[in-house]
Amino acid sequence: MTKTYKLRDLDCANCAAKLERAVSKLDGVKSASVNFFAQKLTVEVPDENADVVLASVLKTCKKVEPDMTVIG
After folding, report:
1. What would the pLDDT profile of 3-53 be if each residue is shown by its tens digit?
2. Cα(70)–Cα(21) distance, rounded to whole angstroms?
3. HEC string of the chain?
4. CA distances, 42 to each of 14, 21, 51, 58, 61 (Å)
5. 23 burial via Cβ count (<10 Å: 0-12, 13-18, 19+)
6. What's this model's pTM, rounded to 2 decimal places?
7. How many CB atoms lie within 10 A of CB 42?
């Protein structure tokens, strides 16, 4: 399953790279990419436990960039 999130208030390309690395390391995440210019996060996760993995992705986003808003 591939899920794309809109990111609001992602301040810099370095923050985007840091977010991409953190999400990529999560258990269950097959791939993750952050497009700073489009302000989007795209995550590929397995279908069987997608809800759990995506909840973990959102939690990590908030931890890495607390001032950023993730729109699903």
Report:
1. 999 999 999 999 999 999 999 999 999 999 999 999 999 999 999 989 999
2. 17
3. CEEEEEEECCCCHHHHHHHHHHHHCCCCCCEEEEECCCCEEEEECCCCCHHHHHHHHHHHHHHHCCCCEEEC
4. 17, 13, 15, 12, 12
5. buried
6. 0.92
7. 16
